[in-house]
Amino acid sequence: MKRILGLIILFINLAIFGQDKNYEFGKVSKQELKEKYYPSDTTAKAAYLYKNRNTYFSYTQSKGFSLTTEFSFRLKIYSEEGLKHATQIIQYYKPDKGDDEKIVAIKGYTFNLSNGKIEKEKLSRKQIFNEKKNRFYSFKKLAFPNAKIGSIIELKYKLISPYHRYIDDLQFQYEIPIRNFYAKISIPEYFKFTPLAKGFYYVQPLRSSKTDTFYWSELRKLEHLKKRQLDKYEVKFKKNISEYIATNIPALKDDEPFVNNVGNYRGGISFELKAIKFPNSAPEFFSMTWKDVSKKIHRSSRFGKELKKTAYFAKDLAPVISNSKNDLEKIISILQFIKSKVKWNQYKGKYVDKGVKKAYKEGSGNAAEINLMLVAMLREANLDANPVLISTKDNGIPLFPTLKGFNYVIAAVKTPQGFILLDATDPYSKPNILPTRTINWQGRLVHKNGGSIPINLTPLLHSSKKNTLNVKIDENLSIQGVLRSKFTNLFALNYRNKYNHLQKEEIISKLENKNNIEIEDLKISNKYNLGKPIAQLLKFSSDDMVENINGKLYVNPLLFLATTNNIFKLKERKFPVDFTTPWIEQNSTTVQIPDGYVIESLPKTLAATLPDNQGILKFQVTQDKNKIKTYSILQLNTAIISPEYYPILKEFYNKLTNKQSEKIILAKK
Fold this sequence. Notes:
The protein has 3 domains: 2-276, Sandwich (Immunoglobulin-like); 290-456, C8orf32 fold (Roll); 463-668, Jelly Rolls (Sandwich), CATH 2.60.120. It has 11 helices and 36 strands. It is globular and about 120 Å long. Strands 5-4-8-2-1-10-13-12 form an 8-stranded mixed sheet. An 8-stranded mixed sheet has the order 25-26-24-23-30-34-33-32. Strands 20-19-18-21-22 form a 5-stranded antiparallel sheet. It starts with a helix and ends with a strand. It has 669 residues and is α+β, with helices and mostly antiparallel strands. A hairpin with a 7-residue loop joins strand 14 (268-276) and strand 15. Helix 6 runs antiparallel to helix 8 (367-380) and helix 7 (356-362) crosses helix 8.
């Protein structure tokens, strides 16, 4: 029944799309140009009126199979914010070593309506810029001429890739909506790809097949005639075709806070190569379980073999661990040594590039070189260490066994208390305190024999920010105060990465702008002592935190530490709330009552919890002689909260913001 219903929906889409088959590149209608907003989403800044893709294999005898993808779209700009789409970027693979992908047959236009007439301006070569992104990728930047609000731009081009075993993911959703979508993927019968659906939006394909032909020739020597003969051959094969057709695809909006990576939820298809089988030859299999994936990576000369290399650091290791009294001290000493010895060159990767030995000698390397080096050194120190394959946040969450799913490697040490995770690419990382980019659900720990097990990457320890604030109000209703703050774990790592490279004056300026205060002095302790929390002390003043209304003073008991706006504004939420780590924010303030005033009212005590011990909230204001003391704590005991709990979480935050918006009221004696 579900299959029948799916086919009915598909054929309805086919019929609707068929009505729009008058889409002809280079010809737009006045009706399209007059359109002031996108009917299905009036908030859209721009929209694809048509978005097409056609991927197919080509064959030449000299080069074998290659992969060609033709892209085209028609895009309407509705607002000032939508004008950013008038600059298009096409990324393609162009490594320093190896075969390049190529972008060819670029053709583009800008259309405007002027005095009732359609004006068409061609994208010229001068408006196409070539830029190199890194050692592996380049991109073409296209600046469409005379684009303005109301314009329509059109673009088509071809991407030709020699890497026919890798079909780029098919994306159904973008940050703007799509009115008409069509994609066609044609694959020769020799290549067995498994289409893997991902995200929250799916388009049911229409599958078919047809016969195709490729040709090859062979120069054959005729011994009896003492000459050569060119023999030509024709090979017919079946081509498997999948067509994806849809209308009015909604935008994938990144308007919710605490989303891991909105791309994780983008509707689309990944194509995983399962097998290659040519006539009269044995099949070559690629389809894998997660264990197969880890074994294949481990067998690579750019992974497993690198772990066995130790001679290059042998003489340096002994002094590093000579004073270590236990395994934890060994781990910390080796981690800190690697971080000081080899700097991360900002390249990710599960495979080494130049190799661990060269990276060690040169003092720089990619993530794999640094962390495989770390594993090797930990093993040499008689620790039970192994690499852990992971997918960084920007690479998405690998839901299916795939080589492409992992793009990074960290280290793990097994101890009686559990696993200790390590990443030596970040100068401020610690045992079990990883950079945010690496905290992405699960990784795969790879044993020495290539076997593997899943391992959780989400921190178990709370990260905390604890503030102690003491202030007094002078006769001019200005506030002078001292704020002491402590940051631990991931909060400390992020603080160090944000501020350690800045001058003191720059930090002061940022903190003043953030909190609307004037800072007289700032001291930061333990900037480089990773064994201790970051300790920040600042002396400040402010003229804007006390309101005088009819002789009464109104003061927020948390002052600028208060959370007065609920960050969760949507009625419902599709994506999990991802805080990255469990966390605690604790505020303790003391406000000295100014001479001549007494307390008229204080905010009442509040206590609230989330279900299943996911979080707690406490808020209490009390009087202690001539001082008003406030204690507030917000504690989230889980890093990830599922969408089903969103309404409860939103109400929880409503209680927080409403309570922290309440004021102390002081009246004259």
